[in-house]
UniProtKB/TrEMBL annotation, chains A, B:
Keyword list, A-Z: DNA-binding, Transcription, Transcription regulation
Domain HTH lacI-type: 6-63
Lineage: Bacteria, Pseudomonadati, Bacteroidota, Sphingobacteriia, Sphingobacteriales
InterPro entries xref list: HTH_LacI, LacI/GalR-like_sensor, Lambda_DNA-bd_dom_sf, Peripla_BP_I
Pfam families noted in UniProt: LacI, Peripla_BP_3
PANTHER family: HTH-TYPE TRANSCRIPTIONAL REGULATOR GALS, LACI-RELATED TRANSCRIPTIONAL REPRESSOR
Domain of life assignment: Bacteria
Protein's name in the database: Substrate-binding domain-containing protein
Length: 339, 339
């Protein structure tokens, strides 16, 4: 294991002076404590010689600040969360903060564990895309006056800052677009649970179809390791589907691979729109129409809100709910072949 | 800011007993210190009532262990690093470790800063995909007997554990495959610097071409925000290229988008192979042939080596250099159109 770092006690022993004196000098309180200039010079010279570095962990115990932010995402390998994480980390670093992160895979218990571990490590604030079931844990952070910013989804019973997109309108708008292109049997294939973003996306899809008296065709997917079987079964059993809206990039990535393997042509047989833009969708032939989230803006709002709270000690800042707007990026996958 | 956590001092004051007594009881040393059972019960009862949680930060100062691993990647939003990070974090969590991470973007100064910050936070070990110029910093970690595992690339002058793939053979093999398919003007478009993985990929490409007496066509890219201009200029100026090997997934993602926009057909006009597999390459029409790195194996080796060192306090464990083999995943992008 690591050699023992030189501590204040070591310095005091080596110079044969008191630990308190060393501590006052290193913390810039020599003048206040009427310590002689000679003594200050002696200590600082020695410290420079031996290359002592103040222990920020000990400092964090004294000040209660760790300059660390806990980031809890669903899955760091998902391009949506990876891109947000990159931007948040970049902006945090420029403001002197480090990021401790974890992926939840929507596992409630893991998320609870991580919140506790982060709390024990004295993170200064939290950025969380919460699974269900962690309301109490987050409420308890807020009771302790810890800054918490939720993103991607929020918890309806918890009053805290959050940054999300207008999921309901975005799904409504994408579905409307498909109807406008002449599609009549529009399915929604989506990861489904009680998280706000997924509930809202389903609602938006339903609203658009209701408006036009069209039938709903919803395939709800579990948050499973492999979605191949359930999507394949759905696409095989439902004849006549002419368009699919995918609720997340993960659902669509599976869906498109399965369409290829089943010989379903996009858009000739089935038109496709997916939530979340990515290189995979842009590179696909034809390129996939997407509901693009404003990732840069989301990261900017998240970090700005959090830093504001950290810098003002949360005093006088009301919680903010930021709802950003998505872009429907229309590409070849949602346009009917010309007849 | 957060309300003050209840400390051992608070408990001692509230119960009107000494801080040392509380500390001995909470650290399970009551018997050893001959503290009465009554006193132990009194303290534990009180602690339960007020919901005191032991401060792991303070504990980490005592024990020197933080159960935190510092992970330093090039770019968390890159699918290669995102996937590795997910697997490492998952395996670390199952072994009771958390991950603090940062992206370097190959910025030497940022990497130095982060190593120092991680050291100040008492991380127990480091997993690093190092940029150049951090040799001294890593050597100094090793001098302090800190476990350090490098991955993706290594530092030739530093003796530490690392996990990489056989980059030279992989590039040689991919280029050989293109030659075997009948291509004669094979370009290498690649992020280029002195990092071992990039040097080896270039060498492998050169070896294959030399073997067949074919001309080298290398476009070295900087690690820039946007690669559009430099790749476009290269593809426009070099007539007669019939195949391209891309050195990284990032280079290929740009390259393929640019080929689309220039009307270059894959593989009819130019065949394509890229390092690093991803959904984007699998979904592309035609799907892109890739040199797939064994990400799961890499993560497994990295975390196993690190945990071994942590558990054995590094005693008796020699450094390991793990060189894993890639797979050439042959798809439609590298097969000449039938004539």
């Amino acid at each position: 294991m690591s050699k023992k770092r030189l501590s204040i006690v070591d310095i005091a022993n080596n110079l044969n002076i008191s630990k308190t004196t060393v501590s006052f000098i290193l913390n810039g309180r020599a003048k206040e404590k009427r310590i002689s200039t000679d003594m200050v010079e002696k200590v600082l010279k020695y410290v420079k010689e031996v290359g002592y570095k103040p222990n920020s962990l000990a400092k964090s115990l004294r000040t209660g600040k760790s300059n660390t932010i806990g980031l809890i995402v669903e899955d760091i390998s998902n391009p949506f969360f990876g891109s947000i994480a990159r931007l948040i980390e970049d902006k945090a670093y420029k403001n002197g903060y480090k990021i401790i992160y974890c992926s939840t895979y929507n596992d409630t218990q893991k998320t609870k564990d991580m919140i506790n571990m982060f709390r024990d490590r004295h993170v200064d604030g939290y950025i969380i895309a919460p699974p269900q079931g962690v309301e109490e844990d987050i409420a308890s952070l807020i009771t302790e006056s810890m800054p918490v910013v939720l993103f991607d989804r929020y918890l309806p019973t918890i009053d805290t800052d959050y940054v999300v997109v207008n999921n309901q309108f975005s799904a409504y708008n994408a579905t409307q677009y498909l109807v406008g292109q002449g599609y009549k049997n529009i399915a929604l294939i989506t990861f489904a649970n009680d998280q706000t973003q997924m509930v809202d996306r389903i609602k938006g899809y339903q609203m658009a179809l209701k408006e036009h008296g069209l039938k709903q065709l919803i395939k709800e997917l579990p948050f499973a390791e492999d979605l191949t079987e359930s999507i394949t079964a759905f696409l095989k059993s439902r004849k006549g589907i002419d368009a699919v809206l995918f609720g997340t990039n993960r659902d669509a990535t599976y869906g498109i691979k399965i369409m290829h393997s089943l010989g379903i042509r996009i858009p000739e047989d089935i038109a496709v729109i997916s939530f979340d833009d990515s290189d995979a969708f842009e590179l696909h032939s034809p390129p996939i129409t997407t509901v693009a989230q404003p990732i840069e803006d989301m990261a900017e709002h998240i970090i700005t809100i959090l830093l504001d709270k950290l810098n003002n000690n949360g005093v006088g800042t009301k919680n903010q709910s930021i709802v950003l707007h998505t872009d429907l990026v229309v590409r070849g996958s949602s346009q009917p072949a010309k007849k």
